[in-house]
Design a protein that fits this description.
By secondary structure, the protein is of the alpha+beta class. The chain has four domains: 210 residues, Jelly Rolls (Sandwich), CATH 2.60.120.260; 81 residues, Sandwich (Immunoglobulin-like); 233 residues, TIM Barrel; 141 residues, Jelly Rolls (Sandwich). It is 16% helix and 35% strand. The protein contains ten helices and 41 strands. The strands form eight sheets. The protein has an eight-stranded parallel β-sheet with strand order 26-25-24-23-22-29-28-27, covered by helices on one side. Strands 2, 3, 4, 6, 7, 9 and 10 form a seven-stranded antiparallel β-sheet that branches. Strands 30, 33, 34, 36, 39 and 41 form a six-stranded mixed β-sheet that branches. β23, α3 and β24 form a beta-alpha-beta unit. The chain is elongated, with a radius of gyration of 29 Å. The N terminus is likely disordered.
Amino acid sequence: MRYLSRSLSLLLALMPALSVASVKEPWRPAKAPLMKDGGGHTSSQNLEVDYPRPQMVRKGWINLNGLWDYAIQPQGEPAPRTYRGEILVPFPVKSALSGVWHSLKPEERLWYRRTFVAPNLRNGERLLLHFGALDCRARIFLNGKELGVHQGGYDSFSFDITSHLKPERMQILTMDLDVPMDSVGEAANRNPHPSQNEDQPIGMGICRTVWLEVVPATYISHLSITPDMDTKSLRLTVILSGRGPSNMKIVAVASSKGRIVCKREGSPAVPINLPIPNPHLWSPSDPYLYHLDVSLLKEGKSMDHVESYFAMRNVSCETDGKYPRIMLNGRFLFESGVTEQSLSPECDTEASTDSRIRDELETMKRLGFNLIQMRGRTLPERWYYWEDKLGILVWQAIPPAPIGGSEDEMTYESQLHRMILELGNHPCIILWTLPGKRVGSYDGKRIAGKIREWDPGRLVDAVNGGVDNGLGDVLDVHCASRPIGPPPSDARAVVVGKCETSTAASTLGAADNESIEDTVRNLCRMIRMARYCGEKYGLSAAVFMANRTLFDKLNLPSLGRRIREANLGPILPNNDKNTVIPTSEEYPSLWYYSFVRGSGYWIQPDFNEDMWKRGFGGFGEGYPEADTPWTSPDIWMRRWVDIPDDAPQSLAFRVWHTGDAEIYVNGAEAASVTGNSHGYVTVPINMSGRYALRAGRDLIAVHCHQTSGRRFIDVGIVANDN
């Protein structure tokens, strides 16, 4: 899927833009407040971008990324005669690698200018100019003639520039951008993440690849690819553009590992069904992709041809017999993820290379995450290509709605529809998320209905941490402590769409002196905690959000580099078969606890524990493993566990204690320890404890006493190898 004419693309990318006056400021990376490495991995000479539209690939294309001239002028002034310097496209103007690092103000206008050599066109061919995206309102000119106007931050657009080409091969492309104001006088491209650092770059200006493509007079302009698991078939609709005869037909060929699975013919703009017998299903553990060839024929002769891919999978919300769950291919898969806010400060995420995208996503998978939540924006299609290829689920948030009147809303809904059509073929996307409570959504019921109408094969999150309106397929709650939501109360699955914990702020790389191994272990621990809550409390998913402190100091690409530099293999969640009842080092276990013994015989199963508090182990102070504070001399704890029928015959406690402790099983004293274990140790279960412990439901009760120093207590059960 990688077609790159290296020599021509590189020549054009490096060709100096033809300026009215000489450039006074040559390009160099700007200094950004959040930069980690000074942007040393990228320069104007080593840009290499793979084909930017991986689900509709043609072999011939010309990359226009590289150095352009730029100028920033007051609104109302004509095109500049002198350009200020060079800007590296496709990096946004407020990014270090653009070389500018400037926030465009409403009273300013940003100008771009460059030259390119037009390819020779034959037999009625057309030349298209593609923009992956730009953020702001833009007017685009070729050789002094206006091509058109575009407004929007995240959708791609194109122009047929054939009629605007000069007879000479050298062409001059210019464009100007400004920050549009909505109808109440606020900047329409305001930062959609107001909770984050004001120095975070946002994608003003050209923020994705700009490229040229030669196409025939009538050409394939869009593919709509929809798997239908009920009929085990693929529904394909091919849209044409340009001018030409109507007697054309479409030939589609689906193949698997070089073997043709199905071949069908049809008409443009009419759905074509391709049977896929015994489909190989796509999932995070097995992200299987089929190859798709689509040809446009006239009287048996190929007029146009594109390559694509697809996956067979479906997503639904169904009950698993106990809870409503998000189902992938009819099976429940707990989704543990992170928000895609790992903005690289030197370049913004918009212009990342394939190697960087893959590195970030593979790092996520090695850590145990299987989900990314895109918040408030889309990313270039190559991100979604690698998520398709590597098997990472995506919850795609739609951009925030405008604050203005009906004209703004119509523009917004049009852009939203284009975005869903543009991304709708990617199997990784399983859910659309409406804007949350902090970014000013409007008329959520109607928008949710529109999304369902446009894309009935995916789920919709219409709550996103806001007031529960009863809409959508999931009840999305946000929490600031642990990934625990309310138990499911209707047909919607319960998810924690944002979990931002104080633990994450203090442990996940926020401290400069924290070891990379500790960072990775803490990330894995968060995943284990989320999975445990999913099993016990009916959650379908949990998404961890990098908070402001963590965002400033750590991002996933830098984490991947640090893992490699430390030569650290993946530290995955402990799946030790010797574990029977995990300690909190594996799963943050939920206990009842009290700092006052109270009345009643607290070690007995029939003790009324309703007045006790509930918290996650371990308990203590002064240790990063302590999830619930314990500062008093004594703590009493109770935890109900389920011993499986196939548990080993000989069991032992796994305990970390910093004081004297007694452990009870169903009212019988099963073990006692003294002093400080300095970590987890194995403690044999005595004879009375072995008699009391049985397969099924059991009560573990613990009392620990300590009068000075750091405190910690945690208990689990393991197989006793001795």
